[in-house]
Amino acid sequence: MCRLLAYSGAPIFLETALTDPPHSLVSQSKTAHESMSSVNADGCGIGWYGERAEPARFRSVHPAWGDENLRSLCRQIRSRLFVGHIRAATSGGVSSVNCHPFVAGRHMFLHNGSIGGFARMRHRVEPMLPEAYYGHRFGTADTEAIFLNALGHDLDKDPIGAVSRSLSDFLELIADMGLDEAIQLAAILTDGETVWAFRWASRHLAPTLYTRRIETGMIVASEPYDDDRGDWDSVPEDSVTIITADGGVDRQPFRPA
Predict the structure, then answer these.
(1) Is the pTM of this model over 0.85?
(2) Range of 58's domain?
């Protein structure tokens, strides 16, 4: 399982949330506390919004704990909305194109979890991805497939519905192929203004996800980055948390049709 984090609020240096805390993502790449695998060494990535509508991105196959470029960027970049991810590969090889976040236009998507049996269904997955967005299919990971498929379900107009319909497509494919597999999802989607944080699993074993309000804004993370656990709210399963640019937070039920 991977670890992820998103921040939305007043501009801060990325290091404030990604590298400086005592149990930061960099620390979690060696010693995650709430993951099936304590080591997440199959690459790392960050994405952030600056002066343009589309986000910037850095991805690396190096473990986060040893990537000095990652640390340098986090020290120098200030942003109002950014994400970070460390990878423990469940599908797709260890390569930069399979590292998160995935980007198309102004949208970013990152994920902790898996589509069970994805390697066995890949020959059926590729044709179902929308032609209009297949040019963004650079890797072989299940996360990228979920994202591109959601883009084909009017993600721009109905983000929650598009993610729901994308997951439904994969559930139907699993059933059609007669596979005894599950989907696990803790995912973050953003368009540069709003953040949608999903937590769901087809068999109710969803990966952990937390939110926390800090002085400058809101954090969403796979696990707390410090020992102040009373300040972190566990996101319930079968829900989506919506964080708006003005700091508003809403939570809605989420379950693919």
Answers:
(1) yes
(2) 3-253
